[in-house]
Amino acid sequence: MTDRRTQREVVSFVRRSTRMNPGQERAWAARDRFLVEVPRRETSTSIAVGTMIDWAEVFGRVAPMVVEIGSGTGDSLAAMAAAAPERNHVAFEVFRPALASTMIKLGAVGATNVRLVDANGVEGLRELFAPGSISEVWTFFPDPWHKARHHKRRLIDEEFGALVASRLTDDGVWRIATDWADYAEHCREVLDDHPDLVNLYADGFAPRLATRPVTKYERRGLNAGRKVFDLAYRRQSAPLCTPSPASHTSVSGATSPTGREVPPDPPSRSQSSPIEPA
């Protein structure tokens, strides 16, 4: 007899309750405006192998593509997408109330250049985007999974680094932010010597991206005394170049656990782990 039980994959998230407040319910009822439906495999956050999406048709244009993995309640996404109307943005999030909150915020700022996918972002990156097709990948404040036995759940590892590198354009950038020093060091240990990636900054840590707003979630971490660490990588085949300082703001100086200097970087944070209601 065939065992049809679904084998659970190790993922970087835990799906939370789907209970919504009235505003979120209204936004979710009108989700067709922003949500792109995808075929599934056995699990509710999966994407069927071989799924293809014509993003030019979805957006009605060809434009530089930005992909965010774990967009949370959309505080960063809404502000950053509204500030870059010349770009298309696709965000992956598995928490439906957070997606509904994101839709509310996108509507409030008039951002029509965003589409949301209710699915595992790793599978989305692998299945829905061709190699060399993404201008920027954002991984802002992924769950650090502190306990050693949970480290296997961390999103950023060598395999994910290879996937991101394969999807970036030659001049594309992978932007990472975390307010946990040990996770920042983990990222550098995994990515600085990655065969497919190049750290854009000789000192290791990047200046804070000026266009990323400080969210309530990030502010809470800063108030608790944590510092924000930014990282930026390009694919190995791309030339190393340091973006103009004019495109970034500096942050309060921080030092990593190994003594590396972190360029000044004022408070900032998006989502990807704890979620706040709209």
Describe this entry's structure for a reader.
This protein has 278 residues and is α/β, with parallel strands linked by helices. The chain contains eight helices and eleven strands. It has helices spanning 22-29, 55-59, 75-82, 96-109, 121-128, 158-167, 181-191, 216-223, and strands at residues 65-69, 88-92, 114-117, 134-140, 168-178, 197-199, 208-209, 229-235, 248-249, 254-255, 261-262.
Can I get a quick summary?
The protein has 278 residues and is of the alpha/beta class.
SSE diagram, text form:
Layout (H helix, E strand, L loop, with lengths): L21 H8 L25 H5 L5 E5 L5 H8 L5 E5 L3 H14 L4 E4 L3 H8 L5 E7 L17 H10 E11 L2 H11 L5 E3 L8 E2 L6 H8 L5 E7 L12 E2 L4 E2 L5 E2 L16
Parallel strand pairs: 1-2, 1-4, 2-3, 4-5
Antiparallel strand pairs: 5-8, 6-8, 7-9, 10-11
CA-based gyration radius = 18 Å
The low-confidence runs, each spanning 5 or more residues with pLDDT under 50, are: 1-8, 10-14, 241-278
Mean pLDDT over the residues? 83
Computed structural class: alpha/beta
CATH fold-level name: Rossmann fold
- How far apart, in Å, are the first and last alpha carbons? 48 Å
Helix content: 25-40%
Largest sheet: 7 strands, mixed
Shape: globular
Query: What is the N-to-C order of secondary-structure elements (H for helix, E for strand)?
Result: HHEHEHEHEHEHEEHEEEE
CATH superfamily: Vaccinia Virus protein VP39
**Beta-strand percent range:** 15-25%
The CATH architecture comes to 3-Layer(aba) Sandwich
- Spatial sequence of strands, sheet with the most strands: 3-2-1-4-5-8-6
Tally of domains: 1
CATH class: Alpha Beta
Number of helices: 8
Number of strands: 11
